[in-house]
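Researcher: I'd like a structural prediction for the single chain below. Treat it as a standalone chain; there are no partners to consider.
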Amino acid sequence: MDNAYVAAVAQVNESVDFINKMKPFGEDSTFKEGAQKLFAAYKSILDVEHKRIIQLLKLPAEEYGDDEIAEYAKLIETSNQKADSELNKLIEIQESFAKKYKFELVKEE
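Model: Treating it as a single chain, here is the predicted structure.
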């Protein structure tokens, strides 16, 4: 669990660095800024919700009661809502960007 968490944090940090080094498309930095916000949200989710989820999952069985189950469920719900919200915002930016610059987006089924 810890190794997966460390790997996820490293991947998000690597992606953030990559995005930060990207040049805007001409003078338009809209898409880059949207991607930065998405990965900032991913970083926040890992730093807050997922860090706590891991702490809860490491608790001994005798310390894991109804309160911990409720907290775990709320953390999962919150992290999913945050990720979905930012991803949907980036999809809207992507669609607008593609329309503006006449790119065709291909959705894989």
